[in-house]
Amino acid sequence: KNFSTEETKQVLRLSLTEFSLPKFYLLFGISKVKSAAVIAFRSSYRDRSFSPGSYERETFALTSLETVTEALLEIMEACMRDIPTCKWLDQWTELAQKFAFQYNPSLQPRALVVFGCISKRVSHGQIKQIIRILSKGLESCLKGPDNYNSQVLIEATVIALTKLQPLLNK
């Protein structure tokens, strides 16, 4: 059974074209290449000169993650319109929430941003949890202002709260 409508196909085509433009490589943390395929398919087996330390690793900004997440959400919502029983967004939201509220310096900030971007509803309990995370990040920064992980966590909670605030009851 073919679920795709012309509108969905158009969204997918435009998104693919958009993500293929060099100016969007930066969003995925691969701006220093001429083609995304160069990085995506590079391996030490095929390219003996490549090693994990042979290129400068670019940081993936939370604002870039926000933009990528919103673009992926648009693609997912377009596909979901054609698949009535689709639970992709619910599963993605559940996973994002799980990692957003679980301490992990690498994943938690990213999960908070994703959770904020993709959530369609939010409870007061979830907002309280995010505020607690923000509070812990602020406490950590007061102890040592050079704590990069705390600064990233604070930025992530602010992004998440900004996205989630409109979903709250007045």
Task: Describe this structure as you would to a colleague.
Helix content is 62%, strand content 0%. It is an all-alpha fold and 170 residues long. The model is unreliable at 44-58 (pLDDT under 50). The protein has one domain. The protein is built from 8 helices and no strands.
Provide keyphrases for this structure.
single chain; 170 residues; mainly alpha
Could you give a quick summary of the protein structure above?
It contains eight helices and no strands. The chain has 170 residues and is mostly helical.
User: How far apart lie the N and C ends?
Assistant: 43 Å
- What helical percentage do the residues reach? 55-70%
Helix/strand-derived class?
mainly alpha
Question: What integer value in Å does the Rg equal?
Answer: 19 Å
Poorly predicted runs of 5 or more residues: 44-58
Give the oligomeric state of the chains in this entry, treating copies of one chain as homo and distinct chains as hetero.
single chain
Largest sheet: none
Provide the succession of SSEs.
HHHHHHHH
| Shape, principal axes of CA atoms | flat
Total beta strand runs: 0
What is the average per-residue confidence, as pLDDT, rounded to a whole number?
83
Portion in beta strands: under 5%
Count of alpha/pi helices: 8
How many domain modules?
Answer: 1
